[in-house]
Amino acid sequence: MRAAVMERVAYTEAGATLFQLLRQLELSISLLSQRPVSQGRMAVLRCLALHGPLNLSEIARLRGVSRQGVQRLAEALEKDGLVRASSPARPPRAKRLELSDAGGRAYREFAGQEARELNALAAGLSPAELRGATRVLRLLLDRQSA
Question: Model's pTM, two decimal places?
Answer without folding.
Answer: 0.70
